[in-house]
């Protein structure tokens, strides 16, 4: 039950990620540690109160961490204003 709830939380955050423009997506993928910490803190604040709520937040944050790594591999990231492409080059999307 906790793992499934964590997957649902991560899926909701993934949908919110894909609603953003490519420039914001690259900003999020470019700072993975900051995103991991932010997601973990926000999810813990939202699910605070019960042991199962905190475990759902932890599982959701762990899944999001894996998805951030996958996103960096697939789409690349920007570091010091240099785009490092992933499997799919999205540099044309960043120019728009």
Structure description:
- The chain contains 5 helices and 2 strands, in the order ααααββα.
- It has 96 residues and is mostly helical.
- It has a two-stranded antiparallel ribbon.
- Helix 1 crosses helix 4, helix 2 (22-30) packs across helix 4 (51-75) and helix 3 (32-47) runs antiparallel to helix 4.
- The longest helix is centred in the middle third of the chain and has 25 residues, at 51-75.
- It is elongated, with a radius of gyration of 14 Å.
Assign the structural class, choosing from mainly alpha, mainly beta, alpha/beta, alpha+beta, or little secondary structure: mainly alpha
Residue runs with pLDDT of under 50 for 5 or more positions: none
Instruction: Please estimate the helix content.
Output: over 70%
- Mass-distribution shape: elongated
Provide the β-strand percentage band. Answer: 5-15%
**Spatial strand order of the main sheet:** 1-2
Tally of contiguous helical segments: 5
Briefly summarize what is shown:
The radius of gyration is 14 Å and the shape is elongated.
Write the layout of secondary structure elements.
Blueprint: H1 2-19, H2 22-30, H3 32-47, H4 51-75, E1 77-79, E2 82-84, H5 91-95
Antiparallel strand pairs: 1-2
Helix pairs in contact: 1-4, 2-4, 3-4
Q: What brief labels describe this structure?
A:
6% strand; 5 helices; two-stranded antiparallel sheet; mainly alpha; 96 residues; 2 strands
């Amino acid at each position: 039950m906790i793992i499934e709830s964590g997957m649902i939380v991560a899926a909701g955050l993934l949908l919110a990620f894909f609603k953003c423009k490519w420039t914001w997506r690259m900003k999020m993928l470019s700072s993975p540690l900051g995103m991991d910490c932010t997601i973990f803190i926000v999810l813990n604040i939202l699910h605070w109160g019960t042991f199962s709520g905190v475990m759902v937040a932890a599982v959701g944050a762990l899944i999001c961490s894996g998805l951030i790594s996958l996103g960096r591999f697939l789409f690349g990231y920007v570091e010091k204003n240099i785009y490092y492409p992933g499997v799919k080059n999205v540099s044309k999307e960043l120019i728009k």
